[in-house]
Amino acid sequence: MLAVKAEGLFKFYKDGAHGKKEVLKNVSIDIEDGEIFGILGPNGAGKTTLISILSTLTIPDSGKVDVFGIDALSDPNSVKSIVNISSGNPNFPWSLTVYENLKYFSLLYGLDDTAIEKVIDMLELEPFRNVRFDSLSTGTKQRLSLAKALLNEPRLLFLDEPTVGLDPDMAIKIRRLIKRIHDEKGITIVLTTHYMKEAEQLCERIAFIKKGEIIANAAPGELKRQMKLGETITIEYMGQFDDSQLKDIPGILDILHENGKIKIVAENVESIIDSVMKKFCDVHIRNIEISQPNLEDVFLKLAH
After folding, report:
1. Is the dihedral of CA 255, 258, 259, 260 positive or negative?
2. pLDDT at 220
């Protein structure tokens, strides 16, 4: 079953100088029930606008959105009851404590204190129960934002830049927490990020958005293959070597050669390594390095 099906989304905002600015351009996207789906793109690409539309916080100028089969544009209240959103820049009433903030939102959702105690325990917020929001660390504010988003036990959770501004240690903890929530509850998670490592660690599929358009949508490994960002063998050697003799080896995508060093990009290094090494039998090999492409390579290729 699809958690989200969006078709032909367009969104414009008023622009004093030019009349209106097109923020989303004919965006269509399918998100499977139970997956962690990433939306990546540079700043200003339209990530937050897209999440706002999918979570019914913003209405598109045209297009259609279904959430678990519910028409999100004609019946937004039904969708709101099964989704929630957590922002990477949480903004809660500063003078209220952790408990008071959660109590405020639980009343809005029509929930009792049982829901509050459950998320306080899950997010390990008990030591901060009576601490005011403005006295919390950035990481604890993030956990409070996640706790708020889990109060109504959503089937679909939106995370907008969940680790932005966090130090590396806290970012790792938040990522582990997101993974644990997903594994324990089996909910669908849609997250926006511009951190490649975060997307690669968490997401089963990723959509890249650039200037309001989806320009790629696939699993991380498939994106690398689509971009021809294969595995790389870098060989440093002494002597003379003619790289033309490598061209008859199937599976090689690219060869970059400079004095004493050659970089071979291949679909699968393991399948060609024996054939490659046989070609180097007449030279002295100083060093061999094998590396895997990552999502940062994909991002850089797509963003330019």
Report:
1. negative
2. 81
The long-range contacts involving 291-296, CB below 8 angstroms and separated by at least 24 positions, are 291/231, 291/232, 291/234, 292/231, 292/232, 293/224, 293/229, 293/230, 293/231, 293/232, 294/196, 294/197, 294/200, 295/40, 295/196, 295/197, 295/199, 295/200, 295/206, 295/220, 295/223, 295/224, 296/196, 296/197
Q: What pTM was computed for the model?
A: 0.80
Residues 144 and 133 sit within 8 Å (Cβ to Cβ)? yes
Residue 278: count of CB within 10 angstroms of its CB: 10
Residue 194 CB neighbours (<10 A): 16
User: Which residues contact residue 166 at a Cβ distance below 8 angstroms, ignoring those fewer than 6 apart?
Assistant: 138, 139, 142, 174
DSSP-derived pairing of the beta strands 70-71 and 19-32: unpaired
pLDDT interval class at 228 (50, 70, 90)? low
Residue-wise pLDDT for 105-136, tens only, equals 999 999 999 999 999 999 999 999 999 999 99
The pairing of beta strand 188-193 with beta strand 36-40: parallel
Per residue in 238-265, pLDDT (tens digit) is 989 999 999 889 888 889 998 899 999 8
Quickly count: other Cβ atoms within 10 Å of residue 213's Cβ.
Answer: 15
pLDDT attached to residue 109: 93
Task: Name the phi and psi angles at 62, rounded to 5.
Answer: -160, 160
CA neighbor of 86 nearest in space, from 149, 153, 176: 149
Alpha helices in 131-284 (DSSP H): 138-150, 168-185, 196-202, 220-226, 269-279
DSSP-derived 3-state class of residue 283:
coil
* Whole-angstrom distance, CA of residue 5 vs CA of residue 135: 40
